[in-house]
UniProtKB/TrEMBL annotation:
Native species: Geotalea daltonii (strain DSM 22248 / JCM 15807 / FRC-32)
Biological process per Gene Ontology, one example term: bacterial-type flagellum assembly
Residue ranges occupied by any AFP-like domain in the UniProt entry: 103-165
InterPro entries hit by this protein: AFP_Neu5c_C_sf, Flagellar_FlgA, FlgA_N, SAF, SAF_AFP_Neu5Ac, SAF_FlgA
Record's GO cellular component terms: periplasmic space
Protein's name according to its UniProt entry: Flagella basal body P-ring formation protein FlgA
Length: 226
């Protein structure tokens, strides 16, 4: 991600950029990178010291971060300083940023196969450095889902650790519904694979022996387009 911040100067001789100005540019970049993400940002370290001696002319700054850096944790940035559009300095700057966010946390160990209840989780503020951006903000997003990877107590819940509970199981007898505004048709069928609410599964019409895709409505009913 690139962010260009610019300023200008029309000095007749060489110019000096103070250490405080370099830090301000990097600080502004870090703040803007996480802007509008709903995070609490604490810049713990900007590893830079000393003033920059540059040629006279208009100054512009560009901060370059590693491609996959999300904006928190440790990173090695590059501050590119241009004078009249020409690159004059490429300054390495190591930073450390702490980002905090409200997220859903398991209040007890959750074993694989358990279905999460509201009493199993709570919303707490935690750091993001070790989560790689994978966390859940809303309790409603986890309640009623099944644990596919065991979660330790007091640990944030990642969305990839959960799965929706199948309502229809493979081999189960179901009611196939096809309807429009004026007509409703039902038939007995058998599910060929499992699916949660809203999933599309293959079902076999027991009368015609034809297989067709259908959307899971509840634990006994699937609906086909009509």
């Amino acid at each position: 991600m690139l962010l260009v911040l610019s300023t200008s100067s029309a000095l007749a001789t060489n110019q000096t950029v103070k250490e405080a100005e370099v830090r301000r540019v990097v600080n502004d970049y870090l703040q803007q990178k996480c802007d509008n993400l709903g995070l609490e940002i604490n810049i713990k370290k900007i590893a830079y010291s000393g003033d920059l001696s540059l040629s006279a002319g208009d100054l512009s700054y560009e901060v370059v971060a590693p491609d996959r850096w999300e904006g928190w944790g440790s990173a090695n940035l590059a501050l590119i300083v241009r004078v009249d559009g020409r690159v004059e300095r490429n300054v390495p700057v190591k930073v450390e940023v702490e980002a905090m966010a409200e997220m859903v946390v398991a209040v007890r160990p959750l074993e694989r196969g358990e279905v999460i209840d509201a009493a199993d989780v709570a919303v707490q503020k935690r750091g993001l450095s070790r989560l790689q951006g994978r966390f859940v903000r809303d309790v409603d997003e986890v309640v009623g889902k099944r644990v596919r990877t065991a979660i330790r107590g007091n640990n944030p819940i990642r969305p990839d650790f959960l799965e929706r509970v199948p309502l229809i199981k493979s081999g189960q007898l179901v009611t196939i519904v096809a309807e429009n505004e004026s007509l409703r048709i039902t038939a007995a069928g058998k599910a060929r694979n499992s699916g949660a609410e809203g999933d599309t599964v293959m079902v076999r019409n027991l009368a015609s022996q034809k297989e067709l895709p259908a959307r899971v409505i509840d634990a006994e009913t699937v609906k086909v387009d009509f």
